[in-house]
User: Which sequence fits this backbone?
């Protein structure tokens, strides 16, 4: 069957049979009886090779797209393989060893993933996070300037902007609920969680403050700033700041530390698994070295 005709053939089948029952594996190993789907020189892609590629719960359109992409990628890979073989002399024995190593690595990886998911606890206590931070805090240097702040972007025509300005300027000696209520009604954008550390560049992005020439000096010299453009007033109350290359505050990296602790648990579980299997096999005399 010619490639173009086969290609159309498989797409039509995918549309007709969304359950993809047609693509179940063939019971025969005789290539002469297999249905060809595509060909690159003397290498063929068969109907059997598409078994399991789609599932009954996929729509006809999704099945068609997946099959089409698979065929396209198969052709590209075969062409690349053919070109490589024609240009380079390969050590077949070495290739076979690498293929086996890769196969074994995939098998081990899948089993380790299965085992780790069965054994691991992803609950990390605050005490664990704080203990890790106290031990490793020097490893957590900031790569950007961060701030704790109140920020609001308000249209110029919004009512009582002077009240908002006064509340933010006086904070924390003003009522945060008044600020939040006002911004909820009138602000186009705001950040009003005073315990949250935020990347300074993200806060001032797309504002007139983004053109500040020396941001470190700006942070050191300002506690409250107002700026305007043609449409908006920007109000920024800086509560605290850390500049790049300083130690990051725990609040800013809490999630990172939690992920580090969980990953260390995964590594430990994998190591224990390997050692336990080896120890049990040695005790049961399941292997020997000649």
Assistant:
């Amino acid at each position: 069957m010619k490639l173009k005709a086969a290609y159309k053939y498989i797409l039509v089948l995918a549309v007709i049979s969304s359950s993809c029952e047609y693509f179940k594996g063939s019971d025969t190993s005789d290539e002469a009886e297999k249905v060809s789907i595509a060909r690159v020189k003397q290498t063929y892609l068969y109907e059997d090779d598409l078994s399991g590629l789609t599932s009954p719960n996929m729509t006809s359109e999704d099945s068609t797209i997946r099959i089409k992409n698979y065929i396209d990628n198969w052709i590209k890979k075969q062409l690349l393989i053919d070109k490589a073989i024609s240009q380079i002399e390969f050590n077949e024995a070495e290739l076979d060893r690498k293929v086996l190593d890769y196969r074994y690595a995939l098998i081990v990886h899948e089993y380790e993933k299965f085992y780790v998911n069965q054994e691991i606890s992803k609950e990390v206590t605050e005490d664990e996070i704080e203990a890790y931070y106290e031990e490793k805090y020097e490893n957590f240097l900031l790569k950007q300037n961060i701030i704790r702040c109140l920020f609001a972007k308000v249209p110029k025509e919004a009512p009582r902007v002077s009240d908002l300005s006064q509340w933010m300027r006086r904070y924390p000696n003003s009522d945060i609920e008044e600020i939040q209520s006002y911004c909820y009604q009138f602000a186009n954008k705001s950040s009003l969680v005073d315990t949250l550390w935020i990347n300074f560049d993200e806060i001032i992005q797309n504002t007139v403050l983004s053109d500040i020439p020396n941001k470190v000096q700006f942070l050191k010299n300002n506690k409250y700033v107002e700026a305007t453009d043609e449409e908006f007033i920007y109000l920024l109350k800086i509560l605290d700041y850390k500049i790049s290359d300083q130690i990051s505050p725990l609040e800013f990296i809490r999630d990172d530390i939690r992920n580090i602790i969980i990953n260390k648990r995964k590594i430990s579980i994998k190591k224990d698994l390997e050692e336990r299997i080896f120890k049990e096999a040695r005790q049961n005399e399941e292997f020997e070295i000649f």
User: Anything to note?
Assistant: The first helix runs from residue 3 to 16. The chain has three domains: 3-89, 126-137+248-283, 142-242. The beta strands are 36-40, 43-46, 146-155, 189-191, 197-199, 224-228, 232-242. The longest strand covers residues 232-242.
